[in-house]
Specification:
It is a single chain. The strands form four sheets. Strands 1, 2, 7, 8, 9, 10 and 13 form a seven-stranded antiparallel β-sheet that branches. This protein is elongated. Strand 8 and strand 9 form a beta hairpin. It has a single domain, classed as Beta Barrel (Elongation Factor Tu (Ef-tu), domain 3), CATH 2.40.30.200. By secondary structure, it is mainly beta. The protein starts with 12 loop residues before the first strand and ends with a strand. About 5% of the residues lie in helices and about 40% in strands.
Length: about 140
């Protein structure tokens, strides 16, 4: 196991460039950070093939969307609305590392409150779409250890 392997997922934070205080209004209980997806293979099989199907990898890479579940303060509706559909730098700071960050460009797509149930904390589902677009410039993720 590498020395930097995460041993506990608790403690990841997300910071929106447009509002560094956003997470004072919501309290995440689970976070799914962005992933990396090379996409489906391109089928290169032709009538020249005699035994095997052939494939080729795609050129472009997708940075997958992120999401989180959080408790929220109803007073945060205005703050959440202000972040909705605002393309900006979003920083994911990994737990237990203090300095390992992943910065991506994206926007808060949705805030969907879960059912309110007596005896349970009110939570909502948040979805972040990764755009890889910084003011019209293709910008991939920036990981800093």
């Amino acid at each position: 196991m590498k020395s930097g392997t995460l041993k506990d997922g608790l403690g990841m934070t997300i910071t929106f460039a447009g509002d560094a205080t956003f997470f004072l209004d919501v309290d995440p209980s689970s976070i799914t950070p962005p992933g990396i997806d090379g996409g489906d293979a391109i089928d290169t099989t032709s009538h020249s093939n005699s035994t095997y199907r052939t494939k080729y990898p795609r050129t472009l890479v997708e940075i997958t969307d992120a999401s989180f579940t959080a408790a929220y303060d109803p007073d945060a509706y205005d703050d959440i609305l202000a972040q909705l559909n605002v393309n900006q730098a979003i920083t994911f700071t990994f737990p237990g590392t203090g300095t390992n960050t992943l910065v991506v460009y994206g926007f808060l797509k949705s805030f969907i409150p879960n059912e309110l149930v007596e005896g349970e904390q009110a939570t909502a589902e948040f979805e972040i779409v990764i755009t890889n677009d910084n003011a019209g410039t293709e910008t991939g993720p920036d990981y800093t250890a």
